[in-house]
Amino acid sequence: MIRALVVDDEVHARDELCSLLEECGNYQILASCANAVEAIQAIHRHRPEVLFLDIQMPVLDGFELLSMIDPELMPHVVFVTAYDEFALKAFEEKTLDYLLKPVEKERLAKTTEKLKTIIQKGTHASYDSPEVKHIPCLCGNKIKLITPKETELVRSDLSGVHVVTAQGEFFTELTLKVLEERTGLLRCHKQYLVNPDCLDEIILLENGLAEIHTRFGRQVPVSRRYFKGIKETLGF
Amino acid sequence: MKLILALLQQMSVFLVFAYLFTKSPAFRPLTSDSLRPRQKFLLYFVFSVFSILGTYFGLPVKGAIANTRAIGAVLAGLIGGPFLGAAVGFTGGLHRYFLGGFTAVACGVSTTMEGLFGGLFHLFLQRTGHSEQIFSPKIAFAVTFYAEMMQMAIILLLARPFSSALDLVEAIALPMLLANATGAALFISIMRDQKNMYDKFGAIFSAKALKVAERTLGILTRGFSRETAQQIAHIIHDETGVGAVAITNRDTVLAFIGIGEEHHQVGLPIASQLTKRAIQENKVIYADGVSERFHCPRSPSCPLGSALVAPLRVDNEVIGTIKLYEPRHRIFLNMNRTLGEGIASLLSDQLLHSRYEEQKNLLIKSELKLTQAQINPHFLFNALTTIIAVIRKDADQARDLLLHLSNFFRKNLKRSNDMATLEEELDHVRSYLKIEEARFEDRLSVHMALDPDLFPIKIPTFTLQPIIENAIKHGISNMLDQGVITLSARVEDQQLLITVQDNAGTYCPDTECGGLGMSLVDKRIKNLCGPKYGVEVFCVPEEQTSITIKIPREGCS
Which of A12, A85, B320, B477 is the S-S candidate for B249 at Cβ 3.0 to 4.6 Å? Predict the structure, then answer.
């Protein structure tokens, strides 16, 4: 059984694809999601092998979603779209396959064969990921989009990852690793990222440790492991 | 005293010639403000003749000639400038010189000087910005008076023996001063009157031409047909007062108004050789009724005798002719000939303009088709995906949706007309919205509140659908929360205002995402209903976008 996740903002399209996948008999549907944030959550929770992804979605589209997925968790991606023009772009992104809506059973069967082969081989999915332009955060029942530029620091604790801005703290599903790799934020501690544009001063402590004071008066610890990297980045 | 009378008598004969001159075509150049070299040469010739005639009409007095030679020279200078004046004066003077007598040299020199004097005064008037006074009789009087005084002085200076010269001057000075000055003044006044008449004639001509232009304006934008040709022929017949007016296309008569209407019937093929020639050779053909007569090919008793046939051209290709006729007993006025040619080129311009308009409309139509072709496949595939899913759950709803889909496409196909009633537009949009509502399920709700009294108002087709499509494509489909579209209509200041509002607030004018569809709707409304009407966008980012369509209350025609 292939562990699959379905992402589409239209409920009927989602239901139909789920029905087709079930009829096909080769899939275990882990969840079906209506937007990118739900999708990230589900990916972290279920670690699917394949993502059936609609491109046109509100707020964050399919391509942006891909850039937010932790490379280690990256599933194989099959784009599902009614728009031909996106299909071409999808090919460039080297997705596994794409399906046109309305989806035909026969066409889906071919995709299934492809998937089976590739999973048997154990090939790890990897896609050229662009920069993360927005960090989606949950804010009540709304999705708030925060740009890396307005972010002061990112902190992780047991409850998850929090983006700190001048306006407050927001919970995000993105991992520190993704944010470190795909934004300009600097890693200074196992649990912290800091925006280099917000640095005010770095105070040296004993044992090779340090502490960063931001321009907004917040303190961020610097661990020995990352201090060297910070010094290199900042040029001393 | 006797001499004065004699000179005045002589001057009268002279003025008769002057009068005849102003009636002749040789006078024509003087009616324009600037003279070309060829016209100057003609004037030189004419005024030289006047100057020589002045000598011939002169009376022998004491071994010299009392004369009106100065008029020609001074006026030539006054009208044509120093060069022309001196040239005429020299010619007149040379002629006088060969007639001999003891004043021969003095007269020859003085006439040249008089011409030059008139010319210098011409320059003076021009430099001081009083060139309109060139034709003033007072100026002519004064200038000639002084010129003659100068002549007397030159005679006294040059003629020998001095005693004879003094004797002569005493006798002829006063008569010649008076006769020449008065003659010049009268001559110029005759010319001025004639010139004014030409100006007035020109004004009447322009007024007629403008009247025709104004009344025919816009008729041909409705195309070159029997109906429009008939209207134009009527107007031209009215304004020019010619015997008859006809308009043809390349092979048949489209309109005929005036004398001979009964046998020159509309719809008959072109029979006249003149017309065939005008079409074939792409030029104006004129049969003045004297050297070339117009012979009616249809009826030997047709009273029409002269005709002007001017081709109507679009891009230099003859598409028809316009014909002006006069009956045999009337002269074809020169004015009507020029007017006829002018009207032909005016109508040609209008035809070109109407063709341009037509092409512009075609362009808008094809742009519209293009956007439909771009939009509909996506809509169709999404709709089909929705319906395929609904079939599994609710066969009745699926059947409803398919009926709406077919209604939407049938309406789309049937819309070849420019106009539809608001009700028809709403019906078209309603089917579209039913499908989109099903597609987005609980993420889209639509409110329609429209007064049925407004339903019969005619609006351009495809006005509502693209706007609503925009609201969904760029608004609702980008929202995570529930989207609401409100469609309402009201009348304000004799305008029907239809408003499509969504709560997404993602389409703002500067974001440009509404693009082609929206601007096309605006362009079409402006084109079909007038520049006052069209589409207006109001947007509060993240809150709402409201698009208002403005249509005249009485609908568009």
Answer: B320
